[in-house]
Each structure stands twice: as structure tokens, then as C-alpha cells.
Specification:
By secondary structure, this protein is an all-alpha fold. It is built from 6 helices and no strands.
């Protein structure tokens, strides 16, 4: 959690800087259209991927299995979709890589390792503390 605070502070600053530079390069109108287009496209992509993962979760539960991997996938899609709705180039890049199946695996591996470290340290009530 300690690494997250500087990221939350620095990401909007970096996004704002890139948006100003993009606006200077492309113009204000095209920059606004780009922001709106990525938000709309991100919404539909996250919605589509979200439906697929909900289907997978239901299938796993219907077969009596715990949908652990599917839940982490759903979390990536949720966070990625949220980032795509935020205005900014950096948030869009991170968001799209969290939503797309091929690049989402990087985040899933990181989340699994993070959860495993917490479990190894004895944090068994992660969700309640989070």
C-alpha cells in the first residue's frame, strides 16, 4: 500500500502533462475527442470482457469449483475499465492493458504474487483489512 500513494499522486500529474503536450501538438479539440473516444471505447470493451468473465465465474461455480483466477481477472477488468473512464493517456494505457486478455496476464501474475506474500505473512483477512 505504501507504493500506491506516490503512484496515486504522480499519475494525474503525468497524465495532465501528457494531455497538455498532446493538446499543444494536436490541438484542443482533437485531444478532447481522443479523451472521450477512449472513455467510450473503454466502457464497451470493459463491459464486453466483464460479461465474458461473469459467464466464466458462473460456469466455475456451477461445476462446484472456486473461481479464483476468474475473480482476479474480473478485478483487472474492473480496475482497467475504471482507468479507461478517467481522462488521461497514462491511465488509458494501463486501463487497456488490464482489460485486454493478452496483456492482462502481467497484472494477474503480479496480483497473485502480492496475495501470496500477504498470505505467507499471515494476513488471512486481507479483504476485511483492505
Amino acid at each position: 500500500m505504501g507504493k500506491l500513494i506516490p503512484l496515486i499522486i504522480l499519475m494525474p500529474i503525468l497524465d495532465l502533462y501528457i494531455l497538455v503536450k498532446a493538446s499543444q501538438s494536436m490541438g484542443f479539440g482533437p485531444t478532447i475527442i481522443l479523451i472521450i473516444a477512449t472513455g467510450v471505447a473503454g466502457y464497451y470493451l470493459a463491459k464486453s470482457e466483464g460479461r465474458l468473465i461473469l459467464r466464466d465465474i458462473n460456469r466455475e461455480m456451477g461445476q462446484g469449483r472456486v473461481p479464483g483466477d476468474e475473480i482476479i481477472t474480473g478485478f483487472c477488468i474492473l480496475v482497467g475499465g475504471f482507468l479507461l473512464l478517467l481522462p488521461g493517456i497514462v491511465t488509458d494505457i494501463i486501463g487497456i492493458t488490464m482489460v485486454l486478455p493478452g496483456t492482462r496476464e502481467f497484472y494477474k501474475i503480479y496480483i497473485k504474487r502480492w496475495l501470496q506474500r500477504l498470505i505467507n505473512k499471515g494476513y488471512t483477512n486481507i479483504i476485511i483489512r483492505w
